Amino acid sequence: MRTFRWLWSLPLLVAAFLLANSAPYPSASSQVLAPDVGLLSAHSADGAQFVPGEVLVKCRLPLPPAAEAAVLRLAGGVVIEHNPTLGLYRLRLPEEIDVQQASALYSELPWVEYAEPNYIVRAAIVPDDPFYPTKQAWYYDAINAPAGWDIERGKPAIIVAVLDTGVQVEHPELEAKVWINAREVLGNDIDDDKNDCIDDVHGCNFVTLPPTSDPSDDHGHGTMVAGILAARSNNDLGVAGTAWGVTLLPVKVLDSVGAGTASDVAQGIVYAAKSGAQIINLSMARPSPSRALEEAVKEAHDVFGAILVGASGNEGEEGVGYPAAYPGVIAVSSFDRFDPNTRASFSNWGPEVNVAAPGMGVFSTHLHGGYATGEGTSFATAFVSGLIALLLSQDSSRNDDDIRALLRISVDDLPDGDTPYWDGWGRLNMGKALNTHAFHSVVPGVVKD
Ligand SMILES: [Ca+2]
Ligand SMILES: [Ca+2]
Ligand SMILES: [Ca+2]
Ligand SMILES: [Ca+2]
After folding, report:
1. What angle do CA 349, 263, 400 make, to 5 degrees?
2. Distances (CA, A) of 171 to 93, 175, 226
3. Can you give the pLDDT at residue 449?
4. C-alpha 142 – ligand 3 centre gap (Å)
5. Which one-letter DSSP state was computed for residue 286?
6. What is the CA radius of gyration of the chain?
7. How many angstroms separate the alpha carbon of residue 80 from the centre of ligand 2?
8. Which one from 221, 233, 301, 366 is the annotated catalytic residue?
9. CA 271–ligand 2 middle distance (angstroms)
10. C-alpha angle with apex 214: 291 to 308, nearest 5 degrees?
11. For residues 175, 181, 187 and 192, what is the CA-based torsion angle, rounded to 10 degrees?
């Protein structure tokens, strides 16, 4: 690799070079377009792809054309395109010149505003799961999911607890995603990690008395929620989930008919928080409050810093159900399949609603390794937990306030019609939410319920 730093670190030599080289660069009207580089690409240190041998350079104005041409030729670059509106030059460098090094050195020149490799921009990723185009694309498009997946697909360190009817942990789309409790010694009949469940390896079952370490699903609801959250995705099989790479913690608190008690749910919430779940998905609702539930929410939220997400309820009436209605829980409603700007007819509304997500015709994993379609704010809730899991994968230091602020500034506000607050801040927009890193240091504190 040729080195040329010496030339640029000496401004006098550069000036001499400029004086000696006054041939003009090709004008905009005579620009030479390079042959299409097709799929050729290289990767920068941060993984971004760029076109080999090409650098984009913007010169500061004003600079005499001859001087500008000389600057551009410094690394042996040939102008292959010039956009006068942007003031941008696309240069082809000799093969032996390193593109990133050349960009850095061009950037050091006082006449250059910036220089960078010619990065490749790709269309938002569409997963190859066979049910995606036929069953799932409409709702993932409605929440701008593919643009989000371009940015973040989820990290295994982020644990989402699924408080539900259990999870079919051996489902081929879920088994690789299920939490493994490394802090528990198995088979010694002792709760080694003191999370209130003995010998728990893949979660816990609080429906039985006493609790057992088997969180298997005997209903199907929890397996569907788990799949929406984090089914294995882009694996040429079944469905795509929202947060492809995160970890699921199954906590069975609802029985084989989908019902549960406040005491079981309360215990499950605290178990999830103690086990390290940063997000607790509560795809359930009851019309009236419960002190036990409220205390458990407070404990998980205030003491453990967990982010809780709950369903607004499926009665199609005013009044958000519990636990979603508690201030410590992000409450989720559902928009309509046929008009994603309007409320799904079953979705409860009220001032406690925070955000709207897909809840009609949702297709996900089901019992016996199968798949099924479901409807309800339960399923909408799982999309929101999934997006939050991606936001924490981006930056695990984000807390509940940060997440609420990010959701609030990124959603698409929908018309309220005659059901005020039905969509809360608005409809989930994954691409926008995941593209707001820059706001992290400024928004917290600005937005608070
Ligand atoms: Ca334990
Ligand atoms: Ca044990
Ligand atoms: Ca899949
Ligand atoms: Ca609205």
Report:
1. 50
2. 52, 6, 10
3. 36
4. 20
5. B
6. 27
7. 67
8. 221
9. 15
10. 35
11. -160
Which among 221, 223, 204 is positioned nearest to 265, based on CA atoms? 204
Tokens of 280: 């607790």
Catalytic status, residue 400: no
Closest ligand relative to 244 C-alpha: 3
Distance 361 CA to ligand 3 centre (A): 18
**Separation of 182 CA from ligand 2 center, angstroms?**
11
Q: How far apart are CA 366 and CA 353, in angstroms?
A: 28
Residue type, position 103, single letter: S
The Cα–Cα gap between 128 and 103 comes to: 36
Domains annotated on the chain, with CATH: 5-119 (3.30.70.80), 131-438 (3.40.50.200)
Pick the catalytic residue from 82, 103, 164, 290. 164
Q: Which of 333, 347, 364, 378 is catalytic?
A: 378
Q: Catalytic residue at 378?
A: yes
Residue 390's nearest CA partner among 148, 141, 125, 140 is 148
Report the candidate in 417, 328, 428 with the shortest Cα–Cα distance to residue 377: 428
Instruction: State in Å: Cα 264 to ligand 1 middle.
Output: 16
Residues 282, 394, 243, 412: is their CA dihedral positive or negative?
A: positive
Taking the chain (449 residues) in consecutive chunks of 10 residues, what is each chunk's mean pLDDT? 39 38 35 34 62 88 76 83 85 89 88 87 81 97 95 96 98 97 96 98 97 98 98 97 98 96 97 98 96 98 98 97 98 97 98 98 98 97 98 96 96 96 98 75 38
Tell me which ligand sits closest to the C-alpha of residue 200. Answer: 1
- Tell me 81's DSSP state: E
Quick check: 168 and 174 in contact, CB under 8 A? Answer: yes
- Residue 190 Cα to ligand 1 middle (Å): 8
User: Residue 329 pairs with which residues in a beta bridge?
Assistant: 308
Cα separations in angstroms, 6 against 78, 98, 101, 229, 266? 21, 16, 13, 54, 68
